[in-house]
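sorry for the late reply, my laptop died twice this morning and i had to redo everyting from scratch. anyway the thing you sent over, i finally got around to it. pasting the sequence first so we're on the same page, its 458 residues, then the predicted structure underneath. double check i copied it right bc i was rushing
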Amino acid sequence: MSSFKVQAKSTSVKAQKGAYPPCSKNDRRLNRIRRLSLDLDNSASKSLKSELCPDRTIMAVKVALVFVAVAVLLTYYCDQPVPEGIAEPRLYAKVQGMVFKISANLAIIGEYLGVGTEPQNLRSVMEAIVNVGLKLKGSSYREGLKVTDTMFDGVKVRVYEPVSAAQISSKVPGLVYFHGGGWVILNVDTHDPLTAHVAEQLGAVVVSVDYRLAPEHVFPAAFDDSVAATKFFLQNAEKYNVDRTRIGISGDSAGGNLAAAVTLALAKEEDLPKLKTQALINPILQAINFETPSYIAHGHLNTLTKDKIVSFWLWYLNNDLSFKKVFEANNHTGVQIKKSQYAGYVDPKMVDVTTVKKENIKFPEIPNIATILDPRFAPLMADDADLKGLPPTYVMTCEYDVLRDDGVMYAKRLEKARVEVNHDHYEHGFHAFLNSFDDYELAGIAMQNYLAYLKKIL
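ok and here's the structure:
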C-alpha cells in the first residue's frame, strides 16, 4: 500500500507545481528528490529520472531487443540459398533477394501495426534503400547530360539530353523508358543511373516516364500516362533536336509491360510517326497462367516471387488481395479460357484449342476480371492480327526469373507474326539484374548487348 500511495502523491506533485501535502517520511524523500532534480542539467536529470522509473527503462530495452530480434529473425528467414547456376559473384542475387523479401515482410508487419498499407510501406522501404545507394553513388554518372524534370501532356517525366547532341547540327535519336516495380513501387529516381547511362552511351535523348502508381491508381492509369507521354514526345520531338522517325520505346519488368502495351496501341494510330523499336527487359506480359514452367521452377526465388507477382497484378487490377489465393491456384479463369486461344498464347504446346470471343466468356465473380484479356493490361493476350506490323523488337530474358516464359512466349509469337525479333537470353541471369550493370559483370555484358542493339536500330 505504501508504494501505491507514494506513486499517487508523486503524480500529484507533478500535476500541482509547488503544492505539498503535510510532510510524511515518503513526502520528504520526494521533496528532496525534486529539489535535486531542479539543480541537475538536462542530461543528468534524464538519467536520474530513468533510474527512478525502472519500468520505463526496462520497457525501452525490451522494445529495442524486440526490434533487434525481428531484424535478426527476418534476416535469417529471408536468407535463401542462391541457385548455383546464377553467375558469380552470386552475392548480388543473394543481397537483392534478401532486401526484397525483408522489405516485403516489413511492409506486411507495418500494415498489421496500422502504419500505412502494404503497398505503401513496400514502396517507402524499397525507395529508401535505393536512395541510400544513390547518395553513396553520387551524381557523377550524370556528367555530360542536361537533366530536366518536366511534364508531357500532364504526365511527369525526366528528360536526359546529351550535351554533345546540342553541339551538332543533325538530329539525334530518342528513347522513351518505363521503369519497373510491378506498377506499384520504384520511380524515375530509382532508375536514374540506368536511364542516364543509356542516354550518355547512345547519345540520345531519353524520356523516363514517372507514371501513376497502383493501387492508388489502378489500371488503366499507368497505361494512359505512358501513352500520353509517348505521343507527346513523338509530336514534339523537334523541340529536343530529336528525329521523330528514330524514336524507340523500352522498359523493364512492369515497364516492359507498358512498353509492349503502348507499342500495340500506337501501332493503330495512323497520324503518328511509327516507333522505331520496342526493347523489353524481363517483361511481365500475362496474368492468366501462374503455373508456367518458369513460375513452377523459380516462383520461390526471393529476387521476385510468384507470391509478390500475384500481389502486383491484383494491386494494378482492382486493389483486392482477397482473391490472391484464387489467382495463385489458377482458379481465376474458367474452363473456357483454359481451353481457348488465350491459354494457347501462353502455352504453344496446347492441343485442341478452341477460339472464343471475349464477349462470350463467362468469368468468375472477381472485380474487373475480364481485364486480364485486355492487351493494354496484358500484351501477350493480343490477337495474332494485332502483332503483325509491329516494329523490330528486342526481348531480354533470364533463366532464373519467374517471368522468363512471358518474354520467351512473346518473342516466339512475334516471330510467328513475321516481326523482326532479337532475343537475348541469359542462362545465368536473374530478374532485375540489369540494374547492377556497373558492378556485376554479367549485368554489364547484358547492358552492352542492349545498347548495341539500340545503337544499331536507332
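The longest strand covers residues 242-252.
thats about all i looked at so far, will dig more tmrw
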